[in-house]
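Exercise 3.2. Students should predict the tertiary structure of the chain below and write it as structure tokens, then compare their answer with the key that follows.

Predict this chain's 3D structure.
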Amino acid sequence: MKNSPQKRRSGPIVVVGLVLLSLTAFSLTVWNYTRTHPFANEAALTSASQVEAHFNTRSNLQNGQRAIVSISADEIKGGTIIEITEAGRALIQMDSDTSAPVGTTVHVNIDGTVGPQRPK
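Answer key:
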């Protein structure tokens, strides 16, 4: 009489567990990134060196935070938040002037990897 080997059912359980762990880790990473790197709902140049951006009021912005301003596909500049209102409007002073005309729509996101800077 031959004994048949027992089937192992742990393989599918391990695979399902790893898939669930990966999905959980991915969703928590996305949640953390959107919380620490908020994107502006709308933004425009108010002068050659300043941008006015409107953020969600839950963005938790602070004066001195660094911002990344994408003016075009080829022109990306850094800046610092110099003024924030309760409504989520932020005034950003760019590090250098741009040649784009005033009123140009730009994309702005906050660099959450760098803490707020003190004014110079």
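Discussion points: The beta strands are 42-45, 50-54, 66-70, 76-84, 89-94, 107-110. The chain is about 20% helix and 30% strand.
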